[in-house]
Task: inverse folding
């Protein structure tokens, strides 16, 4: 009897392992739609600066100076030619909600962008040491993920909802 139960448990475990499959990233997903979904869920559609590549208006685009200022380290910074599409949001307050979705040209560039984002978090936290009144909870909550040539990140006071909304747009359901 013990052997039968053990065999059934083993088969059930194997069935569960093989039936759980990873969701597939939608390569045609819109970074702008992903960021908008998060902003709507968090009620922040008009509480910051929003830049995205899917625009006909130059004012909506990132530029090299902004990229360098936000993600650069001395002379090393991401460039627009590393990206196929992007959307980023920065709350008006310096240590507020921030999120971004980047479809890079290569998986290597996605990993590099991930490093830039992680270094941004580190720099923000180091700078906050000089200002004890600043709440760094949101910056400390950074979630950054890569999948192939995609990289996306969230710093918010509700990362669970934000990540769920973002992945609904980025991954095939």
Result:
């Amino acid at each position: 009897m013990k052997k039968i139960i053990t065999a059934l448990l083993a088969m059930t475990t194997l069935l569960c392992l093989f039936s759980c499959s990873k969701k597939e990233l939608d390569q045609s997903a819109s970074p702008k739609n992903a960021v908008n979904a998060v902003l709507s869920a968090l009620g922040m559609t008009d509480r910051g600066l929003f830049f995205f590549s899917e625009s006909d208006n130059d004012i909506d685009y990132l530029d090299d100076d902004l990229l360098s200022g936000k993600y650069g380290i001395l002379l090393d910074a991401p460039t627009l030619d590393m990206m196929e599409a992007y959307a980023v949001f920065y709350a008006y307050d310096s240590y507020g909600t921030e999120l971004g979705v980047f479809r890079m040209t290569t998986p290597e560039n996605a990993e590099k962008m991930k490093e830039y984002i992680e270094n941004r978090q580190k720099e923000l936290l180091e700078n906050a040491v000089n200002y004890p009144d600043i709440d760094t909870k949101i910056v400390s909550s950074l979630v950054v993920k890569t999948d192939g040539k995609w990289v996306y990140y969230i710093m918010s006071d509700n990362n669970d909802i934000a990540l769920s909304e973002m992945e609904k747009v980025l991954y095939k359901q």
